[in-house]
């Protein structure tokens, strides 16, 4: 079978990629839940443990709020739905000894635990790695904190915005100080949390492979120490590499790329357009299309390095030119010339884009509690043999408590006792 040929067995009849993997999710807010949603999308059974009555903090981070079938706001914030689909929710008070015992029983049968409490915060409950490893040596235990398990900042609380500032990301995001609106800016999404979730899920899958791969032979789990600050430094990518090569800290340059030109937004006759010219061939085709083929032969602009060095001269020529046509006119002119060019959409326009609609990015999942459906963004992981399955919308608080505890062997009398004690 070639790499491009379809699988011989229909994907729908195969188990999901992580089918059979049990995840105990003790995390809240975004980074941890983002990691566990990825695992859930790939087929893992993720049981999300929430505080009775209150639940995950993000259930209350609104507006905006979800609407019920009649179109009225509920008390459920939409933020929670971004990272909790395909999970089961149970409510357990881990401050109660009986709650701790329940969670230890679950951990003893789990493959993975994910938590984002402060360093050492779960030790008092007997839910730290060492305690649970003694019960389940195969357990993979992932801790997510702001600054990691060691170092001078280990005890500090860490939040996405704080880490965007500390790692230098805000110093390279936004317009330069001398420009209108200049100054450091955060990214419009909590990208450090999201990237931490991505790195954490990769580490967890790698640890599962190491545990279960016959070549390793141990069959033992391991501990994963994820820190938002580590991730923030890692995702500086080429900007960090440039600093390490030169010892010169990069600055803010708005939408201009520090190593490519022209690679930025331009004002058009009726709005803005984005040009992302990444090589000399694309620039030559652009010049020919706009009636200035000589620009590509000009020594100041013939190579990308020359264009970066002479960016101001190039922009003197290009800025008035780009204002002679409308945004869609530029896209139409350049799209068949293999010159990357596109609009600067709002989120609403992005969801309405024909390519986004064709790819089925928006998913509507049936919701519990009379909410009708909940909109969610499709996973970008497109596996041909073991595709993502959208099993369920983000759960209501404690929706699966009875179901999960019954699977553990508790009977109705035991459940009633735990409810009476306010453990669940």
Descriptive report:
The protein is an alpha/beta fold. The chain folds into 2 domains: 11-235 and 359-420, Crotonobetainyl-coa:carnitine coa-transferase, domain 1 (Rossmann fold); 263-345, formyl-coa transferase, domain 3. It has helices at residues 31-41, 97-109, 129-135, 160-166, 191-212, 228-234, 237-246, 280-289, 304-309, 311-322, 327-334, 347-352, 354-358, 401-407, 412-420, and strands at 22-26, 45-50, 65-67, 73-77, 87-91, 112-115, 140-145, 223-227, 263-267, 272-276, 341-343, 362-366, 373-377. Strands 5-2-1-6-7-8 form a 6-stranded parallel beta sheet, with helices on both faces. A 3-stranded antiparallel beta sheet has the order 9-10-11, covered by helices on one side. Strands 3-4 form a two-stranded antiparallel sheet.
Outline, from the CA principal axes? elongated
Radius of gyration from CA coordinates: 26 Å
> Main beta sheet: strand number and arrangement?
6 strands, parallel
Which sequence of strands runs across the widest sheet?
5-2-1-6-7-8
Distinctive features:
424 residues, alpha/beta, Rossmann fold, formyl-coa transferase, domain 3, 2 domains, 6-stranded parallel β-sheet, 13 strands, disordered N terminus
Question: How do you describe this structure in short?
Answer:
The chain is of the alpha/beta class. The chain is 33% helix and 15% strand.
């Amino acid at each position: 079978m070639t790499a491009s040929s379809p699988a011989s067995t229909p994907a729908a009849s195969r188990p999901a990629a992580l089918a059979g993997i049990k995840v105990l999710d003790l995390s809240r807010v975004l980074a941890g839940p983002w990691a566990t949603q990825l695992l859930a999308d790939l087929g893992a059974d993720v049981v999300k443990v929430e505080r009775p009555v209150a639940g995950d903090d993000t259930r209350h981070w609104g507006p905006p709020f979800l609407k019920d079938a009649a179109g009225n706001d509920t008390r459920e914030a939409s933020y929670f739905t971004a990272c909790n689909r395909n999970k089961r929710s149970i409510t357990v008070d881990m401050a109660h000894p009986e709650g701790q015992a329940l969670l230890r029983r679950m951990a003893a049968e789990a493959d993975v635990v994910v938590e984002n409490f402060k360093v050492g915060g779960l030790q008092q409950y007997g839910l730290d790695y060492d305690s649970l490893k003694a019960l389940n040596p195969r357990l993979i235990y992932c801790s997510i904190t702001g600054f990691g398990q060691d170092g001078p900042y280990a005890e500090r609380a860490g939040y996405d915005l704080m880490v965007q500032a500390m790692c230098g990301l805000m110093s390279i995001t936004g317009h330069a100080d001398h420009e209108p609106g200049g100054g450091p800016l955060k990214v419009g999404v909590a990208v450090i949390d999201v990237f931490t979730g991505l790195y954490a899920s990769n580490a967890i899958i790698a640890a599962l492979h190491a545990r279960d791969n016959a070549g390793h032979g141990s069959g033992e789990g391991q501990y994963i120490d994820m820190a938002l600050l580590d991730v923030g430094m890692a995702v500086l990518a080429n900007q960090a590499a440039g600093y390490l090569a030169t010892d010169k800290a990069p600055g803010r340059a708005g939408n201009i790329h520090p190593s490519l030109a022209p690679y930025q937004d331009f004002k058009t006759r009726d709005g803005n357009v984005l040009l992302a010219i990444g090589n000399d061939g694309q620039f030559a085709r652009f010049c020919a299309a706009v009636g200035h083929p000589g620009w590509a032969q000009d020594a100041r602009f013939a190579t990308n390095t020359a264009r970066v060095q002479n960016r101001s001269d190039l922009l003197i020529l290009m800025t008035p030119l780009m204002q002679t046509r409308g945004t869609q006119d530029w896209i139409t002119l350049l799209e068949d010339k293999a010159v990357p060019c596109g609009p600067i959409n709002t989120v609403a326009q992005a969801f309405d884009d024909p390519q986004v609609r064709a790819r089925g990015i928006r998913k509507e999942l049936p919701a519990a509690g009379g909410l009708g459906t909940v909109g969610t963004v499709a996973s970008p992981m497109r596996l041909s043999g073991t595709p993502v399955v959208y099993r369920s919308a983000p759960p209501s608080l404690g929706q699966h408590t009875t179901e999960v505890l019954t699977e553990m062997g508790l009977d109705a009398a035991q459940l009633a006792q735990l409810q009476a004690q306010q453990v669940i």
